[in-house]
Amino acid sequence: PGRSFGTTRAFKRFKAISPDQVNSDKEIRLPVRDVEILPEFSSNPFRDRLLRTFSSLKDDRLSFEDFLDLLSVLSEAAPIDVKMEYAFQVFDFNDDGELCEEDLAELIHRLTWLHDKKLEAQEVQLLIENVLREADLDQNGRLSLLEFQHCMRKNPDFESCFRLRL
C-alpha cells in the first residue's frame, strides 16, 4: 500500500502500545492482542481479522511497517479499490479467496451482534440469500473479489466505513 499517512503521528501511536519495547527494539513486532486495545480498534467487530490481515508474517504480530500499511489503507487518501481488496480479505474468514455462506454468516453476526442478542438462524440465512441474489453474478453460491467490488461500488457508505482516523 502507498504511504499517505503521517509517519511521525503513526509511530507515536505504535510506540504508545508498548513504549519500553519499541524504544529498545526498533524492529519489534507487537502482538495483535496488544494493538487491539487501542481505542481506534477496540470497538471494531472486525479488529482481529483487520489486524491479522495486515500482519506481514501472518504471526499475529505487527511491525511498525505493518501498522503503517494498515493506517495507509484505512486513510481517506487510499484508493477505493485498495480498500475493497483489503476489506475482502478481512471478510474472508476461512482465507479461501472467496466469500462463501459461512463467511457471510460470520460477517452478519459480527455486524448485528448487540449485547448477547443475535439474529435468528433463519434471519441470517435470509440475509445471506439476499446478498447472494444481489451480488453473486455467476450464481456459484460464493462471492469473488470482483463480485464483492461490484457490489461495494453500489454502496455509498463503504468508503467511509472502511476508514480510521488517529
From TrEMBL:
<protein>
    <submittedName>
        <fullName>Putative dna-dependent protein</fullName>
    </submittedName>
</protein>
<dbReference type="GO" id="GO:0005509">
    <property type="term" value="F:calcium ion binding"/>
</dbReference>
<dbReference type="InterPro" id="IPR002048">
    <property type="entry name" value="EF_hand_dom"/>
</dbReference>
<dbReference type="InterPro" id="IPR018247">
    <property type="entry name" value="EF_Hand_1_Ca_BS"/>
</dbReference>
<feature type="domain" description="EF-hand">
    <location>
        <begin position="79"/>
        <end position="114"/>
    </location>
</feature>
<keyword id="KW-0677">Repeat</keyword>
<keyword id="KW-0106">Calcium</keyword>
<feature type="domain" description="EF-hand">
    <location>
        <begin position="123"/>
        <end position="158"/>
    </location>
</feature>
<dbReference type="GO" id="GO:0000287">
    <property type="term" value="F:magnesium ion binding"/>
</dbReference>
<dbReference type="InterPro" id="IPR051433">
    <property type="entry name" value="CIBP"/>
</dbReference>
<keyword id="KW-0460">Magnesium</keyword>
<keyword id="KW-0479">Metal-binding</keyword>
<dbReference type="InterPro" id="IPR011992">
    <property type="entry name" value="EF-hand-dom_pair"/>
</dbReference>
<dbReference type="Pfam" id="PF13499">
    <property type="entry name" value="EF-hand_7"/>
</dbReference>
